[in-house]
Amino acid sequence: MTQFIAPTSASRPHDRRRRRLAPAFAAPVLALVMQALAVAPSFAAGLDQLRAFLTETRSAQGEFSQKVLRANGQTLESTQGVFAFSRPGKFRWEVRKPFEQLMVADGERLWFHDKDLNQVTIQKLGAAVGSTPAALLFGSGDLEKAFALSEQGERDGMEWVEAVPRQTDQGFDRIAIGLRDGLPAVMEVRDAFGRTSVFAFEGIRRNPELSASLFRFAPPAGADVIEQK
């Protein structure tokens, strides 16, 4: 999975571990469920629901929770936060608990801010997102150019779609998206090390008017800024 975080030699061991597990939307990261989407009936196939969501939802905001699990199901880390997006290419992914991290994309660049380290990493948006979980939810391009999509049937009251990246160097093997009533409700991302990141989305507002300031970011004074070309 493409990593938004660039570890430095000055990082503490605990920080490096934590940053490896941070959401990668693309790394993560991801995002997006709404309480009132009427574009697809609940009995529609998963692919139909996903395509309708991507085409009919221009903006959204809501809450997320994430768990990172070992292959044996043991929880490595849990985080909670809020997100917002506006197509094309603008999103905000804000971890609030148990620590604070922020990803902001303005359509051209992506900023990752680790508040504890006072470190900011900047990347070009296309290079950072590409064929990543973020592209599935925030992107606006041709999804099937980046992923092989397939129906996975019903599980836990949701219709599931599997997305396998067509490029093999993305750092993750597969993504499974559970949809209910036309909305992505759960996303499972399995990485190359056997870990699975499980994202749950709730409390979503579909197509709200969002302030442009949500998708702007200025590094705080004294921050260590790393710009990746």
TrEMBL record:
One GO CC annotation: periplasmic space
InterPro entries: LolA/LolB/LppX, OM_lipoprot_carrier_LolA-like, OM_lipoprot_carrier_LolA_Pbac
The entry's keywords: Chaperone, Lipoprotein, Periplasm, Protein transport, Signal, Transport
Transmembrane portions of the chain: none
Listed Pfam families: LolA
Keyword set includes Ribonucleoprotein: no
Subcellular locations according to the entry: Periplasm
GO biological process terms held by the UniProt record: lipoprotein localization to outer membrane; lipoprotein transport
Family: Belongs to the LolA family.
Role: Participates in the translocation of lipoproteins from the inner membrane to the outer membrane. Only forms a complex with a lipoprotein if the residue after the N-terminal Cys is not an aspartate (The Asp acts as a targeting signal to indicate that the lipoprotein should stay in the inner membrane).
Subunit structure: Monomer.
Name of the featured protein: Outer-membrane lipoprotein carrier protein
Organism of derivation: Zeimonas arvi
Taxonomic lineage: Bacteria, Pseudomonadati, Pseudomonadota, Betaproteobacteria, Burkholderiales
